[in-house]
Amino acid sequence: MDTALLMFAEGGFARTTVKDIATSAGISNGLMYHYFPSKEKLLEAAIEKHSFLPHLRVILKGTEEPCREVLKKIAARFSDILKQENNSIRILLQEGHSNAEVKKVWDSLSSEGSLILQQYLSSRIAAGELKPHNTEVTARCLFSILFMFSFTRDIFKSSNLSDSQFIEESIDSILNGIQKNNNHD
Amino acid sequence: MDTALLMFAEGGFARTTVKDIATSAGISNGLMYHYFPSKEKLLEAAIEKHSFLPHLRVILKGTEEPCREVLKKIAARFSDILKQENNSIRILLQEGHSNAEVKKVWDSLSSEGSLILQQYLSSRIAAGELKPHNTEVTARCLFSILFMFSFTRDIFKSSNLSDSQFIEESIDSILNGIQKNNNHD
Amino acid sequence: MDTALLMFAEGGFARTTVKDIATSAGISNGLMYHYFPSKEKLLEAAIEKHSFLPHLRVILKGTEEPCREVLKKIAARFSDILKQENNSIRILLQEGHSNAEVKKVWDSLSSEGSLILQQYLSSRIAAGELKPHNTEVTARCLFSILFMFSFTRDIFKSSNLSDSQFIEESIDSILNGIQKNNNHD
Amino acid sequence: MDTALLMFAEGGFARTTVKDIATSAGISNGLMYHYFPSKEKLLEAAIEKHSFLPHLRVILKGTEEPCREVLKKIAARFSDILKQENNSIRILLQEGHSNAEVKKVWDSLSSEGSLILQQYLSSRIAAGELKPHNTEVTARCLFSILFMFSFTRDIFKSSNLSDSQFIEESIDSILNGIQKNNNHD
DNA sequence: TATGAATGAGCATTCATTCAT
DNA sequence: CATGAATGAATGCTCATTCAT
Lengths: 185, 185, 185, 185
What we know:
about 0% strand; DNA-binding
C-alpha cells in the first residue's frame, strides 16, 4: 500500500500499472488481487491508511495556550505532516474528482482541518487574546496557506526563506496584519 | 480544444479517450490528428490556450491606487478568473506532475502570480500605505488563499458566507491582523 | 462471424480466444471490437446469422401433399440443414444454459421446429391420410429423432446404414408402427 | 464431486472456478489438488461417478416380458434417470467435444444405451410380438426421443401433457404407427 | 490431511495512432 | 480537410496450480 501510494503520487493513478506496483513491492501482480479486489480499491485503501486527519486532530486539539508561538508550533507540525504525506496530498488533488472515496477523504480533510483550526481560534478569542472576528475565514486562510505551501514547496524552493521561516512569517502576518497603524490612530 | 479541456478536467487526462473528445467536438477521431500530433499535445495546446496568466497580468499591473478596496477588487477578479478557468486549474493540479509542459504552465502561473502580487504590495509599502514586511510571504499567502478558495469552493459551499464576502473578509484579515492591541500598547 | 461460429463449435465458447478467432479470420484482434462490443455479442450475432429456423419454415410450410414420401423428403432436408449448421447446433446445446440470447434461439428453434411439423401432421389427419392422434407427441418425436441423428452422426457412423436410409426407415417406422397385427385382428 | 458436477452443469466447465467449487464444497481450494490432479480430472471423475449406464443396463436387461407396458415402464425409468442425472447430461453435451474422456462416456452412453434397447426389441421380434424390422433404427429413435425429452423438458413444459403421458403416448405411437389402415387392407 | 498465500501465464478489452480513401 | 476502418501494444484482472506451513 505504501508503494502504491508513492507510485500513484508520482505517476498518477491511471498511468501507474498494477504490474509496476507489484514489481516495486516485490510481489507478483496476481497477489495484489489476493488482498485488494481492484486497483481502485487499492488506491482507496492506501489513501485511507495514510489519512493524516487523526494526526491533525492530535496536534490541534486541547491546546489552550497563548497564541503566537503555539500557532507557529501548530503550523510547523501541520506542515510537517503535510510534507510527510506529500504523496497522499497529491493523490487527493489528482484523483479527488474521479474517485468518490478519495473525494470523501479530501472533503473531510479540508473541512475538518479548518474546523479544528477554527475552534482553536475561537477559544483564543474567548480567552481575550484575539480580536473577535470571523474565525471561519481565518481558519480557511490558514489552512489554505499551509496546504498550498506544502503543495508548491518545490516551485518556490529557490526563495531565500527556509520552510520554518516562511511559516513563522506567515503566522506573524496573519496575527499582525500588514496595514500600517491599523486600528489605533 | 475547449471540449478537450472540459473533458480532461472532468475525467482526467488518461481516462478521457480521443474518440470521446472527437465525438463531443463533433468531428471524427482521425481529424484530431490533422490538427494535433498527439493527445498529449492537444492537452498542452488546450492548457496554453486557456492560460489565464495574461489576465492576471492585466488586472494586477499598473494598479498603484490605495490598498484595501483595490486589493479586494483584485482578489475578486482573480477569483473570478480562477472560477472561470476552473477546468484549467484542475488539469494543472492533476497532470502537473506527469506532463512537463503542463508543469511549466503551473509553475509559471504560481510563481508569476504571486510575483505580481508581491510587486503590488511592495509599491504600497513604498507609498507608505503598508507596513514594511516580507512581501513574498504575504503574496504567497494571498495567492494560496485565493487559489484554494477556488479549488474548495464546492466543499465549503454550505458555509453562510457568500463568495465575495469571504474574499473581502480574508483581505481585511490580512490587512488588519487578528491579534488584539497589536504593537501599540 | 462464420469463423467465430466454427471455432466456438469446435473448442467451446470459453476456450476459444478472441485472438484466435481474429487470427483465423485474418484480422487483428482489435478490429473485432470495431464490429462487436464483446466476445459474447459476437457469439450471439453468429448464432443469429446462422439461425436456420427460416429454412425450416420454408421446407415445412405449404406442403399439403401425401405423406410418406413427403415426410421423408422433409426429413431429409431438415437433416441436411442440421448437418450444414452442425456448428450452430453444437453451440446451441453447449452455451444454451450460459447465455440467455443463445437459449432464446434454441428455445424458439425447438418449439417452432416441432410446431411446424405438428401443423403438417394435423393437415394430413384432416386430409384423412393419418390416424387421428396427438400430433404434438409425434412432432416432438420426429424433431427429436432428426435432431439427435444430426448430433450423434459421428458416434453411429460405424453403422451399416447410410444417412438417408436411416431417415427413411425412421419415417417408415413412425408411420407403420412396429407392432405386429396392431389391434384389429 | 457432486458439487463439482452440479456447478459444471450450471455454469459450464470453463466458467466454473476451482475456488468456487471448493468453497461450495466447504473445503479450501488447495485441498482439491490432494484428491484430484487437475480440474479436468475432477470433471472426469465426477462424470464417471455419475455415469448412469449401469442403471440403464439394470432396467433394460433380462426383461423378456411382453412389449407395450414393459416398454412404457422402461421408458419411464430411463426418463427418470435422465432427469435425475440432468446435470451429468448437460456436461456430456457441453464438454463432450472438448474433453476426450467425457466424449468417451457420452459415446459409450449413447451407443450402449441404444444397443441395449436394440437387443430388447430383437428379443420381442424373436418372441413374435413385434414385426421384423430394423431394430437399430427403432432403438436409436427411442433413445433420441427419451434423451431429447429430458433435455427439452423445460422448453415444452407449457404443454398440457404430463411427463408420463408424453412418454406413454410416444411409445404407443412407435408401436402403432400413425398411418391409417397401415398394412392390412 | 488441510490451508490459503503466492505465482504467472493467459485473456478480454481498450485506445492512441495510422492510413487508405 | 475529413472519415473511420484497422492495428497491436498495453493493461486490469482471472485462475489453475504449487507449496510452505
